[in-house]
Amino acid sequence: MKHKHTICASSPLASVIALTILVFILGRPSHSAIAQTDRGCTVPVANLKNDLWSPECYFGDGCTLGTVCTANDVNITRIYVADVYGNPLNPTCPGTTAMYLWATFEASTERYAVRVYYEVFKDDGSGAVYQYSAMNCVNSMPAGLSSIMLSDINSPVLVDCDAIYTIRNVWIGWETASNATCANTTTCGQYSSSKCNENTAFIYSIVIPDIAYTCVANTDNSITVSFTGSATGGDSPYQLYVWDFGDGANHSSTSPTVTHTYDTTSGATFTVTLTVYDYYSAYGTASLSLQLPRITENCPPAKTSYCSTDAPFTLATEFNIVATPAGGMGTYYYLGGGYSTLQIGAEIATFDPSIAPLGTPINLSYVYTFNGCSDVCYFSIIVYQQPTATCPSDFATCPSATPLLLTGGSGTPTGGVGVYSGTGVSKVGDAYHLDVTHEGEYTITYTYTLNDCVADCTYVVTITGFGINCPDTLNLEGCDIGVLEGETGLPYSETKVEITYAEFTSAGAESVCGDDTAYSYYYQDSRSGSCPITVLRQFSIEMEGIDPATCAQTINVDDTTPPVATAPADATIEGCDTGAISGLSYSEAAVAITLAQLTGAGGNATDNCGIQSISYIDSPSGTCPTVVTRTFTVVDTCGNVDDDVQLITIDDTTPPVATAPADATIEGCDTGAISGLSYSEAAVAITLAQLT
Description:
By secondary structure, the chain is mostly beta strands. The chain is 4% helix and 45% strand. The strands form 14 sheets. Strands 4, 5, 8, 9 and 10 form a five-stranded antiparallel beta sheet that branches. A five-stranded mixed beta sheet has the order 36-41-40-39-37. A five-stranded mixed beta sheet has the order 43-48-47-46-44.
């Protein structure tokens, strides 16, 4: 590839050198310019014969000196082109560069009204063509050695990079009279004591280097470039080629060709500068912005391993390798590894992991080419067998403050790494645990990775609520709830009470999930009724984040033990009827009495819970004696009954006293004569009244 740069410079080594300055746009000076054809002086076509001419061509007023303009009082040691400060030109292409004409004088004494005339020619490849003439005046030339800019400072020669420019037919004149100025020497007559020096025998052209290059080799992060320098203008043969490769390396040689290897690790844009010296050591400099291709990102690719079940992909899309500068061409090449039937070195655009050999590196390269130069990177990709993952079956577990160790996941082939994930899953060391402090269903994912190939499966762990097995219904013998503590170990409490797990189980309750440090155990009682008293005892297990578990046990407290009734001792009393009974009056209807009355009568009554009532009732039987069955009934507070019987025998053992009427003698014939009580040989029942 050839990249043309045109740079102009002047050499301090030449005694007389006229240089061409190259600029983008050719511009006419703003001062008055006189074309040769506007005057009556000799105007050679294209100045090919270097003919001389008189100041007539300068002043244009018809004056003719008639002789060649020569002088020996001033030695012009050098005519050259430079920048506005007299320094060598440093033009930039593309861009605009201004060229000024300078001369170095050695004068014995000061000279005045120094005038210059020169002509500008342009060669765009078809020969030098006159463009315009320019002139200027400098008021004085100091004695001794001095350099003076002869061009008008406001009117430099403007040149472009597409042609060779020359300054020809330089005419320099001056006055020896000290009163001469640029203002009073504008005609031949005013310039009567002039001296002049013409340089018309030489064509001054700038040395214009050119740089061509070809990339000849490349490896990772380095490109070898072959440069060839050339030049136009100046005086050949060219003596020296000085290279600055833009990376800190330099090279000087008489040969126009040089090879240089660039390290593109940190960048791939370099400014290459070539300075060419001609036969008289005039020189020109060309600069080339060398943009070498450079792979900057994603090579080697971030992903270089694949799985046997991965979908086919396009390499350009998958790897997205980035290279600069933009506008080049990137190509992937297959370099071996047993993939498909591709030949080594063949281009490859797509890749199908399903047909690749497993575990074998497949070697590839990516070559990025820009303007005939290439950067390359090498990498390998490898395909592994897709693993499978197996999860345990879904299961349920109780809540706990201790995280649940997750186990049971596995993968094939062996040698991979398995991890568990999901809500509530954490890793401690190499183990994975599930937080089981909150009730619910938790989906656990087991991911098995082998050689960057991933398989996964899921299962569900259900964290249940608490389960309680309540104690059976308990029937207690007792008078009140005070018996609960002795029988169950837990006193009756209508306020919620926290108890230990041991107390919980001793009371007959059972935790389905067993004990856990996060569990709290409680009970609370309520009661209803009497005889029996029904106690509803609610047990609960509680844990933060979990709905409490509760159950209720029924405890019946009842007094089923009857009281003990003791009747007074049996008694036999003398009497004619029940009226003979003293103390507790005879009554064939139940009579309620007190315990004091009972004990006063010689009986007693006892009960473990308390006596509700005591009563007795009499039942007679027989006469002489009459036996009274007196039943004492005792009822306790729960309605339990006991009775006992006292037998009271009433008998009249005292004989009666009979008093017959007084003996009487009556008048009569027979027994019929008895009055009052009739005579009867049979017993006749009479009343006491009859008797008395």
